Amino acid sequence: MRKKIVAGNWKMNMDLEEGIKFAGSLNEYFKNKTDVKVEIILCTPFIHLAVMKEMLNQKKLAFGAQNCASEDSGAFTGEVSARMIKSTGARFVIIGHSERRTYYHEDDLLLNKKTIQAINSGLEVIFCCGEVIKERDQEIHFAVVKKQLEDGLFNLAPEDFEKIVIAYEPVWAIGTGLTATPEQAQEMHKYIRTLVKGKYGNETAENVSILYGGSCKPSNASEIFSKPDVDGGLIGGASLKKEDFCAIVEAV
Ligand code: 13P
Q: Which of 171, 215, 245 to mutate to test the pocket of ligand 1 (most atoms within 8 A of CB)?
């Protein structure tokens, strides 16, 4: 059975004090909950990682980063390696978010290198894919996602692919208030699972968790997450508000 996951992507929000306070309040909220059957992950800015290990009950709340370097170590000023992330106690890293692809020009080849670094360092990867609105209008969104997965992930060995969670985030739905309809999400998630099946076989395809991301909020979460191939969400804006984030977790 594949895992249900809700991951919060804080993006570039929360200074150290705010992050500690917020993560502490989530920790408190989930501490005594025994009925939550969902893996909850907080993907924070790098500055928070080392304190998260001390703060969070990791049986309830896992944590991770939002990016990592494509190299292992050396003269790469400003970069943070996957091994460094792992050394903080983090379990996850997001790779291939559309904001990295767009603003930092990260292409499939680079994202593949980052993914391999992350896996070799013992991290699990939340690998993002998704089309921009023009590509959907041109009806090439399936081809776009296929290429992102083939070039970013599909050279992984089968045992390494088990460390991957896929997040489908249509770029036109990120931070815009527009959400894919549950049917649009299901259609793409099913397609992604078919691609994984073609490459890695039925068992792997059935086991991989595929998350939806893009303007998820308490009011639309239940409907999207009720679809059979939607295994949870990658949450941006709503992950910064305790009530919203907790309500989304409960919707899953
Ligand atoms: P929003 O939930 O703010 O649309 O962001 C989604 C996202 O980019 C998560 O990675």
A: 215
